[in-house]
Amino acid sequence: MGKAGQSYLIDFQIRRAFFFLLLLALLPHLSFSQQRFTISGTVKDASTGETLIGASVRVAESEKGAITNSYGFFSITVPEGQYNLQVSYIGYQTSTRSLNLNKDVRLVVQLNANAFLQEVVVSGRSAKEQIRSPQMSLERLNMENIKDVPVLLGERDVLKTIQLLPGIKAAGEGNSGFYVRGGAADQNLILLDEANVYNASHLLGFFSTFNSDAIKDVAVYKGGMPAQYGGRLASVVDIKMNEGNEKRYTAEGGIGLIASRLKVEGPIVKEKGSFMVSGRRTYADLFLKLSTDTALKNSTLYFYDLNAKANYKLNDKNTIYFSTYLGKDILGLNDAFRMNWGNTTATFRWNHLLSRKMFSNTTLIYSDYNYEIENLDQRSDFRVTSIIRDWNLKQDYQYFANNHTLRFGLNANHHRIQPGKITSSQKSSITSKTVETRSGLELAAYISNEWNVSDAVNLNYGLRLSSFHLLGPGSFNTYSDEGRITRTQNFRKGEVVKSYLNLEPRLAVSYRLNENTSIKTSYTRNTQNLHLLSNSTSALPTDLWIMSSNNVKPEIADQVALGYYRNFNNDNWEFSAEVYYKDMQNQIDYRNAAELRANENVESELLFGLGRAYGIELFLKKRYGNINGWLGYTLSRTERSFTGIDNGNYFPAKQDRTHDISAVGIYNLSKRWTFSGTFVFNTGNAITFPSGKYQVEGQTRFYYTERNGYRMPNYHRLDLAATLEGRPEKKYKSSWTFGFYNAYNRQNAYVVDFRDNPDDPSKTQAVQTALFGIIPSVTWNFKF
Hints:
Elements: H1 3-26, E1 36-45, E2 56-59, E3 64-67, E4 73-79, E5 81-88, E6 95-101, E7 105-111, H2 129-132, E8 138-141, H3 158-162, E9 168-170, E10 178-180, E11 188-192, E12 195-196, E13 201-202, E14 207-208, E15 215-221, E16 235-241, E17 250-256, E18 259-269, E19 273-282, H4 284-288, H5 294-297, E20 300-315, E21 318-333, E22 337-353, E23 358-375, E24 382-401, E25 404-423, E26 433-435, E27 438-452, E28 457-471, E29 474-479, E30 485-491, E31 496-514, E32 517-528, E33 530-533, E34 544-547, E35 555-568, E36 573-590, E37 606-622, E38 627-642, E39 651-652, E40 659-668, E41 673-682, E42 686-687, E43 692-696, E44 699-703, E45 710-711, E46 715-725, E47 733-741, E48 749-757, E49 760-770, E50 775-783
Parallel strand pairs: 1-7, 11-16
Antiparallel strand pairs: 1-4, 2-3, 2-5, 5-6, 8-15, 9-10, 11-12, 13-14, 15-16, 17-18, 17-50, 18-19, 19-20, 20-21, 21-22, 22-23, 23-24, 24-25, 25-26, 25-27, 27-28, 28-31, 29-30, 31-32, 32-35, 33-34, 35-36, 36-37, 37-38, 38-39, 38-40, 40-41, 41-46, 42-45, 43-44, 46-47, 47-50, 48-49
């Protein structure tokens, strides 16, 4: 059978298995039952019309309930009767409606913000939801509720805030990259309105690409990912943008020491459609113009973001959404060097209510990440460009049946990667070169069912079936274990070079011991077909993405977890403890002195092996009152094993840290003054230091033995902030935020270099470089 026939057979098997699983899941709902009616609708913010994600909807008399989906929609089916429907959401007044249910009912529930509730909480879910739901290892952030958490230079930052949660570790000082439960930085799926964001960093990691003014909701899955998510091993960060105020026009923003931002939103047609446009720009380059140093004066260093979203309700059953993001970094050094990189995304969605119980979402997504490097020296001028471009089509369904919430869908994602193209002038000493562009197609089908088995037991089980096809055109090499070419094949456009098929089962179970206590367990398998190659200590814009191929197999991770959850003191306090173990296959590392960039044989530089990660996470959170915050602790290990490294023995991965502690405290002194602080401590990263040295022609050379056998110094830091709200009687709102990053000026090691001791060259001197000392910040925020 030819490769085209093999590809067709694989896709046929995917479709057949998917519809078989769908039939099995529907069987419990086909049985005869007494007459029932459906309460469905949408939950919104009363003042803005924004839909509320994760609101709790409960029928008081029957304990039947639902959680609103990503569009604020819910559906509950109960027998005919008289009921009280309770709708609640953190930070809002609970709404109760009496219903005489003798027919299907469609509602729009508008909740009013609770003006008397002082709170900071990283979850927008109902206080009871973490007890009832089978979903574990999930944290949901609400941007309004984390506005007081102090961060670098006073810029509210989603990715920096989630690094304060247990199980999530910062990739480095001031870095927006992060590691989740032993996974590498590229093993996190970061979505912005369902579009994949490949590089979520500005200014080499000091800021994230996400402007907080434009963000509505953030869901972070550290494990137990629902079946609709796939493509990465470690975590999912699902970010939703604001839809815009559908009732009135507003503007808000802020002016800080390094950046300013502005958001405008309002109705397109009141109660039917709205828009939101938000922009942000740094202006460090403007201060460079004031320098007397010519090199600095002619240099550039800034980034900008632009977020936009619009929605329009065609009728009661159909709503369309369009959102887009454009972000760019510009870095230039005088007339010698220039680099820029950025993301562009666009998402079009059509929501359709097929019935009171069936919710459909059709999504077309475009994602583009690119970078360009220019050396402007006339004797060695060159330009390097690289592009990753995706076209993604998704069809998702939710079916709300009695005691069941069924989700199923299909996904087709076409990837195109141009790894590197070097162009130069005829006078340049650099030779022009192009590494072949690669194309791939990811297909997936999924199905899951959340089943309320009883008042005590909830179950979520599902299956994701994914395939990956590497496509021509191009010349494709096969390499031996030693990195030598053993075979070269040429393929025409659209021909299948290599295919992989993987089943990814998902299972989560919760058992409620009482109203305030539950235990949960989960098992998840994830696969990954796009891989980031980087042999630097931190992620760079120029790091290289490659696809699975005839040499590179899909990465696979199996994770099991067990958790204990408890609310106490009238749900004012929340505690959780989770233990996990993750087994990883086909992990990637590099041969010594590997050259990754602009290398058409880059796969020959790779080593493949195993990984494992395990640990315990403890989390204590206070929800309400004048003093709020949380405390997180992680005890963990993450290790790798490669045949070509340390004789195949397990060694610590670079992101291995034994202890990780984070504390967040917020004190509401009065209606106008709020004080906050964060403290973090972690064991230093595993790192490879030299074990000895020798001389070559009078030059010192270091040699290395065991991989990652040493540790960076322990890291700790205290950040402080204070916010002064404007006088409430004014027509517009304003506030001042003052902050100190690294308040006690800890000189944390960013890099450690080794050199000969100038007083005794026979000895080696370790030199530690710190990136940040104490950094003050001030920001003026406004809204009218």
